[in-house]
Amino acid sequence: MTTVSVITPTYNRAETLPRAIESVLGQRHEEFEHVIVDDGSTDDTPSVVEGYDDDRIEYVRLEGNNGANVARNEGIRTSSGEYVAFLDSDDEYYPGKLEACVDALESLPERYGGVFHGYDIYRGETYLGPEATDDGRVTLSDLGEANVPGSFITTAFRREVFEDVGLLDEAMASSQDYEFYLRVAREYDLYGLGTVLAKHYRQDDSISLDLDARRTGKAQLVERHGDVLTARRHAHHHYLLGLTHAKRDELGPARRELARAIRLDPTNPFPYVHLATCVTPTTFALGMSAKRRVKRLLGQ
User: Fold this and answer.
1) Which of 44, 126, 161, 196 could form a disulfide with 157 if both were Cys (CB 3.0 to 4.6 A apart)?
2) Can you give the residue range of the structural domain that contains 258?
3) Separation between Cα atoms, residue 243 and residue 258, nearest integer Å
4) For residues 144 and 183, is the Cβ–Cβ distance under 8 A?
5) What sign results for the dihedral spanned by CA atoms 271, 155, 214, 39?
6) Residue 88: inside a domain
7) Torsion sign across C-alpha atoms 99, 112, 224, 300
8) pLDDT tens, 267-288?
């Protein structure tokens, strides 16, 4: 059996897909398969994949555009690896990603269903800073406070996890990764590797700017996992809504959401920063820049 399966859902990312593929082919751990699931692309994605002569790459094409979790689930069903990792088609792994994840999963007790790590954030060629993680155990209680692993690109899971808790929820409008982590944590612990092993590129068409998707996803999370979500987590939802409104130059609604975040969790300093700078689009941008500088200095 292949040691690890890397699942990449893609839709009209012919320009960035080579970066993702080459980052997998460049892994120090070479016992992998890379399952690329094309979710109905209308660009040159098929020819991009055909340009790689490596039998570890498997290309699956779906009819229509069905959503990232549908594509991920098809990749999981198609794959055969003992471990399963995810990589979006506009992101990339650092060379030691698979090696570190496989080594950790092979050394950890089976009660740990998956591992995760930090990642660097870019917008184009501009480095925005790291999203760091601590080293050690993460439980359901921890996840009720925050989406500790973050993006799917940080993770690798034992295959039996999907057999025990099910595949990814295709109905989720947003927070697709977080909903799955909560489900996993009801049966297993997770383990943070405390190191940065991937690059995440923020895109202008990201679901993070879709207010309706954010609100619907929050309602779905409450329906499925409301018993473990804490005030801090609810505060983070309003904080993100505030940032989304502000990025759309909707400063009044942004201030209201940031104020709600502060009422629910007065210990987080960042909503205060954004509320104070949410006067004009220019001052808000300055506040965002200041936050990024602080996070870079703190290494988180």
Assistant:
1) 161
2) 230-298
3) 8
4) no
5) positive
6) yes
7) negative
8) 999 999 999 999 999 999 898 8
Number of domains forming the structure of the chain: 2
**Which amino acid is residue 158, in one-letter code?**
R
Task: Tell me the sheet residues that pair with 158.
Answer: 83
- How far is it, in rounded angstroms, from Cα 82 to Cα 159? 6
Nearest to 288 by CA among 260, 254, 237, 253: 254
Regarding whether 20 and 140 lie in a shared domain, the answer is yes
Domain identity same for 178 and 118: yes
Domain presence at residue 220 = no
pLDDT in tens, 213-223: 989 999 999 99
* Average pLDDT of the residues in 189-204: 93
Say if residue 42 is in the same domain as residue 93. Answer: yes
Predicted pLDDT of residue 261: 96
Residue whose token pair is 């001052």 = 283
CATH number at residue 28: 3.90.550.10
Phi first, then psi, for residue 9 (nearest 5°) are -80, 145
The full 3-state SS of 175-212, as one line of letters, equals CHHHHHHHHHHCCCEEEEEEEEEEEEECCCCCHHHCHH
Are 145 and 191 members of one domain?
A: yes
Judged against a pLDDT cut of 60, whether residue 90 lies above it is answered with yes
Do 91 and 35 share a structural domain? Answer: yes
